[in-house]
Structures are given as C-alpha cells and as structure tokens.
C-alpha cells in the first residue's frame, strides 16, 4: 500500500481528493495548518470512507516543522494543495502569498530531494493562461503575465518544480484546474468559504439560501453570446479523481517527461447567465440578481481543451453541470440547517 501525503488535505479540493485516494486503496497522511479549513472535516472524511486519515497539524512555512514531519513519516508521493487562493487578497498581501505559496513549496521540494522522495502533484490553475488567444485552451497555449500575485505563485510554482525535476530526478505533474464547484454526494464535505464568497457558485447558493440578498453579475458587455463571462465549471469529485489518475501515472512510471502539466476541466464553457439558469432549473430555486460593472482582472472566456488530459491520464469527467450545481445547493442547505 502506497502512502500519500496530502498537504491542505482538509480544504475544499484536498478533502475530496483524500476521499478518492482512500477509496482507491491509498494510505493517506494529511497535513494542514487549519488556516482556511476545519478539523471536523477529518470526521466527515472518516464517515464517507470508513477510514480516518492520519492527520498532522503542520505549518509548511515552518521549515523545522516540515523537517520534523518528514523525519517521522515515510512517504511515496505528495499531492500539494496547501496554499492561499484568494485573488483579491493576494493583491493586498503579496508577500504573505509569496511566503506561503512559494516558501512552502520550496521546503517540500527540498525534503523530497534530501530523502529521495519521488512523485509530486501540484495544484496549478488555468489562470496561468490569462485571456488565451484561442479557445478551447490547450496545454500549448502561451503562459501570459500573471494578473495577480496569486496567479504568479502558480506560474512561479510550476517553474520551480520544473527546475527541481531537471536537477533532482524528481517526477511531477501540475494540474491546471479550471473552475471547481460542487460537493461530495454524501454532502459530508464541500466548500466552506470564509466570509463573503468571492466565487460565483458559493455566492449563488448563499443568495438562494437568503444569506445574501442579491447576486451581482460582473459585467454583461463581454464579447460572448449573452454578454456575460464564460468559464469551465468542473465538479470537484471529477477534479479529485484527476489527481488519482495523475498519481497513478507517476507511480506506474507511465509519464513521458519528468514534469508534465494538464488542463483539468470539462471542455465546456458556461456563461454566468447560463449558470444562473442551470441552477434555477436544477434546484427549483429562483435567484435574485442584477448586473454590475465588470470585476477587475476577469477574462472574457476560459474553457479547457481536455484532449491531452483525457488521453494521457486516462481520465475524463463523469458528472454534469446540473449535478454539480445540485450538489452545491444540497451542501448549502445542509450548512444553513446546521446554523438555524
Ligand atoms: N462572478 C459574478 N458574480 C460573483 C462572482 C463571480 O458574476 O459574485 C463571475 C466572475 O466575473 C467570472 C465568473 O463568475 O466571470 C467566475 O468567477 P469565480 O470568481 O467563481 O472564478 P474565476 O474564474 O474568477 O476564478
């Protein structure tokens, strides 16, 4: 049985990936500093899978803590989620973002080098493409200057990993996520945004639940069929499964390059208005919304060409947009019930 370290394993994508890892027969060790996650998620994962992952509260910014962890644990591979992820906040606090997202990555890679640990999966993002010239976006699309310190940490992160793979016989895969949404069908785990949600789907579900009075559509004057911006929304469980596929590729030594990167999306773009309609149709809830100015830094359209990921990772999405939206709503309803 292979032991996989999942950093940030109690977060949104991390927790869903831990579930899929355990369901696939991996032994999982989670480290998380609980800066944007709750310890109760550990029990939720246990409920779903019947197995409690081994958990260590470790702050990856603390080199000594990281070293101590590796002194005590034997690891076959790492899936690295732990990072700050709020685009707007990263503009206000760039140094915190660089320290956390880059510093932690370097410490992990140093430990891997020093202990001959191979197999690294990195959470990257489609933000590395900026506004791509061609749609759908293939992995060959040029990397555009980052729009935010957050986006820059993903670009720099990939560069650091590529250099480490070349210098230290490391094998790694970066997964460039499009827009992850939804929740596990058990509704034991899901997205837990802190404060006012910045992302569309949590804002939609909180509006439907009456927590927010009105959803704002950020711009209806984009060059798209209905004027609203287009994204590729992928069910988080499908996204989690892409990590298992990537990990198996590395463990089986099927990878063709020591550093590979893949687009992880559905291949289908949906506009904000289409999301609103699909949400209303699949949940029966009516959304109160208005149109406001565009949000700074938003691109017009981004959706993935997943041909290469489908073929090389032997992976494809299985869930529909409607399922994803319904699961997000079921999760929201559960949160609302818990707090009423
Ligand atoms: N969006 C919106 N209202 C909101 C939040 C987001 O209209 O309250 C739009 C946003 O402008 C973008 C899309 O929804 O076109 C997805 O935004 P999100 O922040 O979820 O993800 P991003 O693609 O920016 O990472």
- The global form is globular
Strand tally, please?
13
Question: CATH homologous superfamily of the domain at 3-182 and 233-265?
Answer: NAD(P)-binding Rossmann-like Domain
What radius of gyration results from the CA coordinates? 19 Å
Task: Walk me through what this model shows.
The chain is of the alpha/beta class. It has a domain at 3-182 and 233-265: Rossmann fold (3-Layer(aba) Sandwich). It contains 11 helices and 13 strands. α3 runs parallel beside α5 (94-115), α7 packs across α11 and α9 (272-283) packs across α11 (321-339). The longest helix has 22 residues, at 94-115. It is globular, with a radius of gyration of 19 Å. It starts with a strand and ends with a helix. Bound molecules: uridine-5'-diphosphate (UDP).
Task: List its salient traits.
alpha/beta; Rossmann fold; two-stranded parallel sheet; 11 helices; 16% strand; globular; binds uridine-5'-diphosphate
Short description:
The chain has 340 residues and is α/β, with parallel strands linked by helices.
Topology:
Elements lengths: L2 E5 L4 H12 L3 E6 L8 H9 L4 E4 L5 H10 L4 E4 L6 H6 L1 H22 L4 E6 L23 H20 L3 E6 L1 E3 L18 H9 L6 E4 L11 E2 L1 E3 H16 L7 E6 L5 E2 H12 L5 E4 L14 H6 L8 H19 L1
Helix pairs in contact: 1-2, 1-8, 3-5, 5-6, 7-11, 9-11
This protein binds uridine-5'-diphosphate (UDP).
